[in-house]
Task: structure prediction
Amino acid sequence: MATQRARNSSHWFLLICLALICTSASLFALDPVVRTESGLVRGAGTDVIVFKGIPFAAPPVGPLRWKASQPAAPWEGTRDALEYCATCPQPPLLPGIPPKQSEDCLGLNIWTPAKTSKDKLPVMVWIHGGGFLLGSGTQAHYEGEVLAREGVVVVTINYRLGIFGFLAHPELSGESPQHVSGNYGLLDQIATLKWVQRNIANFGGDPKNVTIFGESAGGASVFSLLASPLAKGLFARAISESGTWVFTAIRHLRESAYGYEAAEQAGAATGDLASLRSMSFQDIVKLKHPKPDVFFDFSFANYRPVVDGWVFPSDPSELFERGDFNQVPLLTGTNADEAALFMSMGMLSGIKTPDAYRAWLTASFGEGPGAKIAKAYPTATDADVRDAVKQVITDFIFVESTRAIALSAQSKVPVYFYRFSRVNAIGRATKMGAHHGAEIAYIFGTFNTPMINAPGQSYDDSDRALGKAMRGAWVQFAKTGNPNGAGLAEWPAYKAGSERCLDFGDSVTAIPLPGASRIDLLYSVFKELRSAGQKKQQLSRN
Result:
């Protein structure tokens, strides 16, 4: 009898151990099979589980090409979410983009450290850059695992680009219930955020605590979503890195503005809609693009968001100035040497003398404003010209727009402004300094996949320490709406008058925003350009 009782005790002991092991596994790892509104998806991983290529919308092909995003079709059984979806069609201009392209590209990727679906972790939705023409949420330096280990659910997305994402056309406007066209890429982003609201809780995320963040065109997208009433209530906080577009030249749907012809008129020149829908995406990518940017003749297309009266009720700069935007806490900033990246690609390489520099300013801004800018950014010799051009582009395209939004928002919501000035070994080797996009590796911790390659150069321990500090601040902001916290550098709120920002360089220090008086001048120039465009619109109406 004693032997039998011992056997029974041993048997129950083993069962209890197995039960504890199973319970422990469920407590310390989210089930890799998660239900979405379209069906089950299977991810992979241990302490951080990644789900790749989840469709958030139907493929925009055939009659859905140049339509607002439509719901993804449901599927039977469990879908493996182990590989990224294709990148959206784009010209082969940017290295590091996965080569597989398809219009069936509207997918998202999720990295979650949640232990259960009830964890309600903060969610950070990344919007990639690339001038609204290039890029993908699947690029290696956007891998979300390191960032997710900080206690957030990370989402990266694709959205339609170039002519596929931003073609305005009178026939498309005629098809639309809202009688507008263009902005399909932004509608994809809004569709993603709606998908997150409906589904992210099953991945351990909190739909009430979503932070949108992005860089370059992604930063401009963040500003755009702040300005669009269609995105209201879809996010609780916003981070824009090197955002632009809002306080610079913007196309309008049916009227000329800022020297641009109307977006519908430009789109009509590409051909009739039936012909465009019958073409392969490979042929469409090769189509001649609209007139390049009127200020800086970058050698890529100018398909970008347009003021259409629906996604944007009016010029976004005016919406911000009136306080008519989605009022959530904002963290924003720029890099010290933004334009160095573009100039390394040969843009504006023909401006080599002070006379050529002044002629470029006059052609870009007009004689009076151009002369004022030449005085604020002087050149005495040929050797001065390149740095002056770089600083004008950095300040007008990036800093002026970002600062104008920060100043407009700071009386309504908490605003935190940063400046990234760290020049690492790669920045020194390439002579690009703290260039456009240089901060991305620090935020994502993807030091093994730098945005810019410099053979023989790599990040060091100082870079990794700075990355930890930046990720800590970004995550703290995503959690609370304030980047200050235990173990983090003190970050003063940005306010008109003091204009304090946090400089992430060789040290992390609060400083006054550099060059504020020059940015005041550029802001006044922008307002002159906007006013002149409005007068032209009024004349066209009369």
